[in-house]
Write a structure and sequence with these properties.
Number of helices: 12
CATH class of the largest domain: Alpha Beta
Number of strands: 14
CATH architecture of the largest domain: 3-Layer(aba) Sandwich
Number of domains: 2
Order of helices and strands: EHHEEHEHEEHEHEHHEEHHEHEEHE
Strand content: 25-35%
CATH superfamily of the largest domain: Gcn5-related N-acetyltransferase (GNAT)
Distance between the termini: 27 Å
Helix content: 25-40%
Largest sheet: 14 strands, mixed
Structural class: alpha+beta
């Protein structure tokens, strides 16, 4: 037992403590993957992160016996709530040592903050959008962690459940061997769609070729992701920022788009898993971390599927299969051995069946929780 003090993050020093606390909490966990710290500084900066223009947010630190013991973020995404007619607050980026008292103090503080904002439910872990890590990992801790996903310890979900939180949504992560031979159903679909002259598959060799397609792909993402839980449409400024942030680390060989005479109608983005490089760089890009990350990306044998979408009126015509097959072919050419699905919503049966069709197995599960306030 000991007095717990909850302090709002207001200064740069506070923010530094918030950002670097996870490295202390997880220092003895061999599978733990640090974030890219340059991105962390931007994420929590109200002047640089455009999400603060449409969302209210607060950061808290917990101290026990005058020692830093935990952290949490509270968010009210006004744009998402308005689109979906909800009054839901969010908690996210929660980290602490194995201490129920600290968890209680942190989550209670965010509950109070959300209620003051007029919210009737708290959900999480969930950040500004589905592009931030979602949920707590609840299964598969024996497998290495991977970029852009939760990196919590196994005790944290159990402790949040003790605070009255119940399952809201689950997400799963598949691992599949890179197909050396296409399933028969893919062969049939590919044969049909390949002969449709109105569809043109576009592949890339250089980032220069890719550059003009980034913003149209993000605009298509805005259109096609609206039904995905947690998604918030990107503003024009966010699209530009997103493009500038990810273009340097994208590998054009694993990006495929399909267009017709009217423009882009489908896109799929994969990238070599950078996790080992991030780990070797300890999350620091400068002065030499970026070279470690890029070097490991060349050595990676695991392809991480990040994004993909097809215009609604063109779904069911084999465009997703066409892009998938082209990605498989590029994967084989570049000696990739595994496909990692990233996160797939548990009830997304169409996507799950595609990974299962190529021999994918669920290796991790993540849970978003909810509680009425």
């Amino acid at each position: 037992m000991g007095e717990i003090i909850i302090k709002e993050v207001l200064t740069k020093k506070d923010r530094r403590e918030f950002i670097y606390l996870p490295s202390k909490v997880h220092k003895n966990e061999k599978n733990w993957l640090p974030p890219i710290y340059m991105d962390e500084w931007e994420l929590y900066d109200k002047k640089k992160n455009k999400s603060y223009q449409y969302a209210d947010a607060v950061l808290y630190l917990a101290y026990k016996k005058n020692k830093l013991a935990g952290r949490i973020m509270g968010i009210v995404n006004n744009r998402y709530n308005s689109i979906h007619n909800e009054y839901h607050g969010r908690f996210c980026f929660m980290e602490c040592y194995e201490d129920q008292e600290v968890v209680h103090a942190l989550i209670k503080k965010v509950e109070e903050w959300a209620k003051e904002k007029g919210m009737v439910k708290l959900v999480g872990p969930l950040g500004f959008s589905d592009k931030d890590p979602q949920g707590f990992q609840i299964e598969g801790f024996e497998h290495p962690q991977f970029m852009t996903c939760p990196t919590n310890s196994s005790y944290l979900p159990l402790m949040i459940e003790k605070e009255g939180y119940l399952k809201h949504r689950d997400l799963v992560n598949y691992m599949a061997p890179m197909p050396q031979q296409l399933p028969l159903v893919y062969e049939k679909v590919l044969s049909k769609v390949s002969h449709k002259e109105e569809f043109k598959i576009v592949e890339f060799e250089t980032k220069k070729e890719l550059k003009s397609y980034i913003i149209p792909a993000l605009e298509l993402m805005n259109e096609t992701f609206m039904e995905i839980y947690g998604f918030v449409p990107l503003t024009d400024k966010e699209k530009a920022d997103f493009a500038a942030r990810y273009l340097p680390i994208l590998d054009p060989h694993f990006i495929k788009v399909v267009e017709n005479e009217n423009g882009l109608i489908g896109f799929a983005v994969g990238m070599p898993d950078l996790s080992l490089g991030i780990k070797k760089a300890n999350g620091k890009l400068l002065p030499f971390g970026i070279f470690k990350i890029l070097r490991e990306s060349k050595r990676s044998r695991k392809l991480l599927m990040m994004l993909g979408g097809v215009k609604k009126e063109f779904r069911g015509q084999g465009i997703d299969v066409l892009m998938g097959v082209k990605i498989f072919q590029s994967g084989i050419k570049h000696k990739m051995e595994w496909i990692d699905s990233h996160l797939v919503l548990e009830d997304n049966r169409r996507m799950r069946s595609e990974y299962e069709r190529i021999g994918g197995k669920v290796i991790k599960r993540f849970r978003i929780y909810q509680k009425d306030l």
